[in-house]
Amino acid sequence: MIPESKLIESEVLIRKSRLPNDVLLTRKSTIRWLALSLGLINPNESRTVLVDLLDALFYLHYCEEQPTTKDILAKMKEITGSEQNPKAVYYHLQRLTDGGILNRKKGVYYFGTGDEKDLSVIFKRLYESRMNSAFSDIEKAFSRISEG
Asked: For the chain, how many structural domains are there in total?
């Protein structure tokens, strides 16, 4: 038996979700919608650490800052009004980095190459690249089974 779980290098999950106007009324609900649509959180996720982390990261990105973990924790405290559990924040930063969504170099975090401003372009390029890579192998598999 092939150890299937060991074959998986990464997953691409994008949800086609309606974007009603009431979602766009607040920054937090918009970021939550983005996290859900990009497959970063599950439906009905009750924990908010990742959404708060994304809020801080997006804010710092648009301020053209490449923050350290300390900067991120400070921004999250400013946004939420309370201290965040550093272990939980480190965990989610590592997940985002391992997933290729976030990059880290010399202790600072950034999206894309670090020079790009438009997050929609950065995320679209990342997800398209992953899907193209996956479909390259899927096409190879279909080609093999079409041979009989």
From this structure: 2
